[in-house]
Amino acid sequence: MNGWLVAAVVVLVAGVGASLWGVATGPLRRRATAQNLSTALACPALLLLSQGYDRPAYVDLALVLAVLGPVGTLVFARLLADELAGDPPHARVPTWTAAAVGAAVVVAVGVATGPGRALVKLLVIGALLVGGNLVASRALAGGMQEGRRD
């Protein structure tokens, strides 16, 4: 057991565990926000596991999750727009915390990886992860309603 695996366990248990509990219980606004945060925290956990087990394939899984996680949240935001309009989720603190965790993990793994193609892939994952999480959270909060046709 090394430090990378310990960090991955902390992210999985504290972040993803709490997010999965939020998805399973509570009102729609909390479930939608927790779904977005679970994908935003599973990606850094995969990066930490990749470094801990020395398996580069986990980085590819993190890349796929960084792309598809926010897209899934945007689909939920679009399909549930009417239900969320009356009571939109406001999760600034969890959203920025998940973005900070993702950025910190990308920086730490990038420093451990060193320069090269793997670092470029990590930086792309970090940009997709943080940007996608912020855009998806904004969409859930109803911030992108002006483009809708009723």
Major sheet details: none
Number of structural domains: 1
The fraction of residues assigned to DSSP E strands is under 5%
What's the tally of helices? 6
- Provide the helix percentage: over 70%
Assembly type of the chains comes to single chain
| E-strand count | 0
Radius of gyration: 16 Å
Globally, the shape reads elongated
Order of helices and strands: HHHHHH
Could you report the average pLDDT, rounded to the nearest whole number?
A: 86
What structural class do you assign from the helix and strand content? mainly alpha
Segments where pLDDT lies below 50 for 5+ residues? Answer: none
* Separation of the first and last Cα atoms: 55 Å
Can you walk me through this structure?
The protein has helices at residues 3-24, 28-53, 57-79, 81-85, 92-113, 117-140. The protein is elongated. It has one domain (3-140). The chain is built from six helices and no strands.
Q: Keywords, please?
A:
single chain; 150 residues; 81% helix; elongated
Secondary structure layout plus pairing:
Elements: H1 3-24, H2 28-53, H3 57-79, H4 81-85, H5 92-113, H6 117-140
